[in-house]
Amino acid sequence: MKKRSRLFSLLTAAVLAFSLFATGCDSSGGKVKVAIVQPMSHTSLDQIRDTIISKLEASGNDNIEIVTENANNDTSALSTILQNLRSEGVDIVVPIATSTAQSAKAVFEGEDTPIIFSAVSDPDAAGLTGSDCQNITGVSNNIPADEIVKLIQHFQPDFQKIGFLYTSSETNSVSTINAAKAYCDENNIAYEEASIANLSELPTAVETLLSKGVDTLYTGNDNSIASAMPTYTDAAYSKGVPVYCGADSMVADGGFATTGVNYVQLGEQTADIILQVAGGTKPSEIPYETLADYAKFVNLQAAGTLGLTLTDDMLDGYTVLVEADGTSHFGE
């Protein structure tokens, strides 16, 4: 009888434990371990990570333990990091960027571990929605295609041809550019495109686009190119061609202007979802979010390098991220 009683107690405890984590990550008696994983370091990704950490720490929730991991642009290292996190039994995984979120989905397949992505341009195209993704939600950094063209028209109303530049292996970047090209096709806007497989090809890709007569360049939320903005802008600005981009951090690193992602806002929205899941809400009950608003930033130092005169009307509604003397307000 005692053995049966003990067995019943163990089974009851097991059921309670399962129910606890099936409804979220409110572990009550222990810490909720949140693992933030990024594929590499550059201004945008680091800002997302730091903002998530700051908001979680400021929430007053002492039940959350935060760990951070960085694959340093090594795909095999990224897989190993995620495998180790699975083995350690982390409670919530927060992959930053599309490739990281896709890897997290693959590694944690069959697990109930919540995956809360950040900075995924097209969650549907990335395979992060649907019946097999009940434990996945997050925040998308998608930028509407019409906003991209409006941005360029705002500063260059007489532009003739856009040059789209992106990394071919980044689903997020490809998705953004495909949407922009479709918009251009529908509205008879001329463009050329070039893709790179690695950063060593960046200067040549810029030169190729310039040789085809583009008078403006655009790159969206492209992690590889964002990590090499000085190389990008040096090649373009030497020919007097502005570089528009998809994020404030890319403007801070030399881009001319953006209507795009404010990564502080993105990080804060991601942290809000983490707090909901840590409090017991299932990811399946939280539809993925898009940004609540789009940021508008301009780099006056870049404008000076390009010889562009910006009127007060042009600057209306835009925040100056870099002054003409190079003073940066990024992160303020």
Order of helices and strands: HEHEHEHEEHEHEHEHHEHEHEHHE
Low-confidence stretches: 1-23
Rg estimate, integer Å: 22 Å
> How helical, in percent, are the residues?
40-55%
Number of strands: 12
Strand content: 15-25%
**What would CATH call the homologous superfamily of the largest domain?**
Response regulator
- What is the name of the CATH class of the largest domain? Alpha Beta
Number of helices: 13
| Content-based structural category | alpha/beta
Number of individual domains: 2
- Ends apart, CA distance between termini: 67 Å
> Biggest sheet: strands side by side, in what order?
7-6-8-9
The CATH architecture of the largest domain:
3-Layer(aba) Sandwich
Biggest β-sheet, characterized?
Answer: 4 strands, parallel
The 3D shape can be described as: globular
CATH topology of the largest domain: Rossmann fold
Mean of the pLDDT scores? Answer: 90
